[in-house]
């Protein structure tokens, strides 16, 4: 984990530690994991659980607000490196991040559903099954790939070459990268869920599965593999170009590997019932892997060699996928069955784990675990 201006940041740099200064790193990581899971499950029961929550937010607009919340953390934490927030002492810093994230997520979800939705029915909050909320939040899928890539893979190029400082670096990234992100959304995303589109380039299930596989490629290469192999291209624009092209190719390869893996993990009966929906399951496995890559970097200090990190996080991802779909979603989180013996959607609760990881471990700096922190 790296530190800038006195605040711990998401693990973004190539020089993340691989050798633990003491055996306490494991206890520190387990303690972080226990707190993140407790926070996630507790708040799930309050806000989203179909049987215990006093509201009816599940699955939408809850998932829509969740996606916007994670994107906001990407903006302020990854792109802007918590500029402004890092001047505050704990726990005020974490509370400010939590409050700002909540306000942004709720405001954007409401403005799209009730505001833009009153003009364009595609985004209307009154669409059946909350699809209006989903149509707006689908934009975030592309943002996870583009805005994270300019940090993890591009290393803030070209803004650092122009001798800019934060928060100007982050604001420029957010503004300029919005253009290709919107283009991807309007070409691939919106037509797949639009009421007026007569045809789209691909179904919404394929969009979810394929583009989330690219998100996995970005996190895998940029964080878990310390920006390898893109850093071999010499840095700057060469690395940025290599990463952009390479992550599309690698993400596509991950997608085609994940589809048969999902079928194998779910079994033939569930696969047959899901039909074409199986094409979104690379995203369902991918979010489990993304969670563990993010948590391993920030909770466990990105220990061990890059290859070992890949093996460890992928094994944990597969185990999490099986445990979630076969048991946790139905029996702990009370989510409805989607096929025989399979319940829930990992893009909901597992992303909720990601959000609480970023808020507690990064935003609050693992508040209360100072004695366990090997750093």
Automatic annotation (TrEMBL):
Instruction: Enumerate the UniProt keywords alphabetically.
Output: Membrane, Transmembrane, Transmembrane helix
Q: Show the stretches that span the lipid bilayer.
A: 25-46, 66-85, 97-120, 132-154, 166-188, 208-228, 240-261, 281-300, 307-327, 347-369
Which classification does the entry list for the species?
Bacteria, Bacillati, Actinomycetota, Actinomycetes, Mycobacteriales
Source organism superkingdom: Bacteria
What's the protein called, per UniProt?
Answer: AAT family amino acid transporter
């Amino acid at each position: 984990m790296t530190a800038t201006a006195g605040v711990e940041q998401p693990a973004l740099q190539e020089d993340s530690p691989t050798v633990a200064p003491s055996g306490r790193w494991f206890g520190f990581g387990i303690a972080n994991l226990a707190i993140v899971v407790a926070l996630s499950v507790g708040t799930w029961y309050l806000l989203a659980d179909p049987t215990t929550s006093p509201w009816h937010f599940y699955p939408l607009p809850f998932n829509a607000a969740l996606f916007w919340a994670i994107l906001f953390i990407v903006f302020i934490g990854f792109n802007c490196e918590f500029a402004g927030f890092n001047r505050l002492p704990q726990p005020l810093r974490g509370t400010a991040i939590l409050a700002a994230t909540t306000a942004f997520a709720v405001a954007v979800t409401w403005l799209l559903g009730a505001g833009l939705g009153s003009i364009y029915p595609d985004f209307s909050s009154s669409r059946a099954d909350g699809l209006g909320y989903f149509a707006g939040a689908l934009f975030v899928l592309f943002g996870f790939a583009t805005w994270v890539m300019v940090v993890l893979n591009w290393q803030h190029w070209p803004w650092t070459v122009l001798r800019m400082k934060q928060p100007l670096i982050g604001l420029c990234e957010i503004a300029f990268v919005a253009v290709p992100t919107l283009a991807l959304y309007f070409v691939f995303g919106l037509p797949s869920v639009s009421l007026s589109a007569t045809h789209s380039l691909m179904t919404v299930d394929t969009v979810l599965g394929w583009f989330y596989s690219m998100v996995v490629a970005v996190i895998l290469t940029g964080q878990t593999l310390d920006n390898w192999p893109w850093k071999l291209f010499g840095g700057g624009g060469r690395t940025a170009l290599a990463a952009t092209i390479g992550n599309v190719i690698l993400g596509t390869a991950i997608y085609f590997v994940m589809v048969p893996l999902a079928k194998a993990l779910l079994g033939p009966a569930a696969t047959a019932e899901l039909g074409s929906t199986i094409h979104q399951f690379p995203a369902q496995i991918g979010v489990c892997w993304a969670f563990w890559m993010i948590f391993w970097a920030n909770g466990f200090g990105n220990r061990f060699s890059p290859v070992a990190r890949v093996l460890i996080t992928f094994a944990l991802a597969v185990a999490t996928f099986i445990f979630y779909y076969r048991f946790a979603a139905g029996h702990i989180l009370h989510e409805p069955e989607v096929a025989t013996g399979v319940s829930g959607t990992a893009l909901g609760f597992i992303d909720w784990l990601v959000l609480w990881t970023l808020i507690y471990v990064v935003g609050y700096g693992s508040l209360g675990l100072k004695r366990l922190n090997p750093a």
